Amino acid sequence: MLLKQQTIQFSSHSTLYDLIVPKENILRKINDLIDFSFIYDELLNKYCTTNGRMAESPVRMFKYLLLKTIYTISDVDVVERSQYDMSFKYFLDMNPEDDVINPSSLTKFRKLRLKDTDLLNLLINKTVTIAIEKGIIRSKSIIVDATHTLSRSNPFLAIDVLRERSKLLRKTIYTFDDQFKERMPQKNTDNDLEKELVYCKELEKRIENEPSISSIPAVKEKLNLLKETVEDTQENLTLSKDTDAKIGHKSAESSFFGYKTHLAMTEERIITAAVVTSGEKGDGPELPKLIEISQENGIDVDTIIGDAAYSGKENLKITSEQNIKVVAKLNPSITQGNRKDADKFDYNKDADRFVCPAGHLAIKKARGGSKNIGTNQVDTYYFDVEKCKSCPLKNGCYKEGSKTKTYSVSIKSELHQDQIFFQETEYYKEKAKHRYKIEAKNSELKNVYGYDKAISYGITNMQMQGAIAIFTVNLKRILKLM
């Protein structure tokens, strides 16, 4: 049960916060910056207001998740730290003497309360609104790009994730006691997930039996992360394949199994829109959504800054209709003329190849015709026929008995002539200098907030992870610019 109105509790000990939590503390700044009651309003219909025992405030539960992202710690550690860290208690709107939740409540909150909510757009909209109100966003340009995130359940990486966690735990222990190596269990050298789970459990047991080591905060954090990974792997062992994740390509030679997050960001480095897709999706087709969401969030867009993936014919047509300039270098392979299925085969700028509707990357390409003589040159992309033969989407795409499957595109179209001229202007060259900013933002999301790997399974959970990570980076950026 949840009360229809939030209640404010007073304590004679609350004045301690003014003495202990300084004004420059990041959590105090965030609390002062934003009114989190919008979370309560958004999730109220997820609770019963008449029956059941009293539920924890959804605002507080959301703040627990935000603390997890800010400090990159486990459910167990964020709750434990909230017992003694006064800045955490202040941020959670708790009285100093209040008790904390059970860590398992966070799992239930994610699964039951945040399910079927558009948390991604809700949180981005809130931070963009604040940035506009504070006069932080002044530019009318948005920089676009996509960043990839590895699936948590990649069947080829499950054992590697466990080994990475256990290795991190061992290294942390050795910084405090390098003689502890002699008491470590024997490592599993086989490529066997079950044996690796046994090793990790034995490692946990050995460390927990040594209070002098396991009580060290840094060790405890790494130990809890390993425990979470072991439990999660056991729970999903029979469902190790993430059905929402797909194979995408970072280059013609390298691929990944997971998701893509397509981002739009202002020149002030405030993210204004995000769309999460499976890994095989192209970058270019998501541009219209990024523009639309940015505009709905209050951004007056007059320029798009991106790489060659965004200079496709359809994107140029859509932006031209809205008088939006596209600062993206043309790639000949993106021009597809009047092809009816142009929206089905996506161009992967990293691999410099096209991807078919089934997600298969072209294996090679060849160029025909003479440059600047007669008709346009044509790039022909060749696909693996063996995959085509067994593809569920082969009807209308692959002709039975064919020895090859190709996809050809014209090098130039009339629509691109204006873009070619625009690329030579000073405005284009000046705006293009801002594109590096989104690469830095992608790096921050991955290296600081753990966005390089999904923490749970499925695209819904990936959207939730993205929502809280982007909310965090936007809030910190706003505070920096104020």
UniProtKB/TrEMBL annotation:
InterPro entries, per database record: IS1182_transpos (IPR047629), Tnp_DDE_dom (IPR025668), Transposase_InsH_N (IPR008490)
Annotated ranges, domain Transposase InsH N-terminal: 20-111
All copies of domain Transposase DDE, residue ranges: 355-478
Protein name listed in UniProt: IS5/IS1182 family transposase
